[in-house]
Amino acid sequence: MSTKVKMEAVKLTILGCGSAMPTKKNFHSSQLLEMRNKQFLIDCGEGTQIRMRQFNIKTNRLNHIFISHLHGDHYFGLLGLISSLGMLGRTADIEVHAHPDLERLVAPQIAYSCGDFPFKVNFHPFNPRKNEIIYEDRSVTVTTFPLKHRVPTCGFLFEEKQAAPHLIRSMIDAYEIPIKELAAIKNGADYVTPDGEIVENSRLTTPAAPPKRYAYCSDTAYSEKIIPFVEGVDCLYHESTFLEEDVARIKNTLHSSAKQAATIAAKANVKKLIIGHYSARYKTNTPFLEEAKKVFANTVAAEDGMSFVL
Question: Domains of the chain (ranges plus CATH)?
């Protein structure tokens, strides 16, 4: 029997998967990612806080918000969310990661409307045109990678760090290994018994589960330059604003079609593709799913309120 620390599943909830014009079905872009007992909000379009309440999302572990770019459908909900968190009695600071201009645009409104709240909103600027680590703790890393859009835009790669191997309790007990030796064994050390016998680490441990990786590609034209950053991820969200038939709109707006999103997924060998950010001109998401599945079978068409376990 092995000794294992219970790890919570990596869970993604779609709060909004519409594009610039919201519909009755789909609000503006926003997602909540739960990873290693933390909550990360990805984009915060108008209506994000409404969806949180409708979907019974509790935000007691939400401390970091990541904004992909400064088109309104990806950040107009930020001020309302912050205001509501203050009225709900939040005391922990909020960390917002975004293009440097977001602080200039939003900070005065926060100071005016939310200045008496018992928490601060701290802005952490980054350059969307660069590939860099913008957040890291003991168990999670968040990296940006450039996308191709009309304003500086980036994707986000959320990665778990590799957990330590699990101790095999029966072997630990059989060799009567002292507690003080266990940390070294979890870090890969062999164990030497009082009689000088070397017990290899592989006999005392089993590997931890592979770390999960989630990539978020918001507004972007088709670009194979992102493939190295999303290669082999457990789940890729890639915008699919239009269908392939709308060639002119795709080119003029620097967005992607469902087929193009699926092509990226196939070339990058990802495990699952989620498409979204649908234009309001379409009445149903079915054509998007059909178009994408012809290229990449393991595709899901996002809807507000959907949850996925990686």
Answer: 8-163+209-309 (3.60.15.10), 166-206 (no CATH)
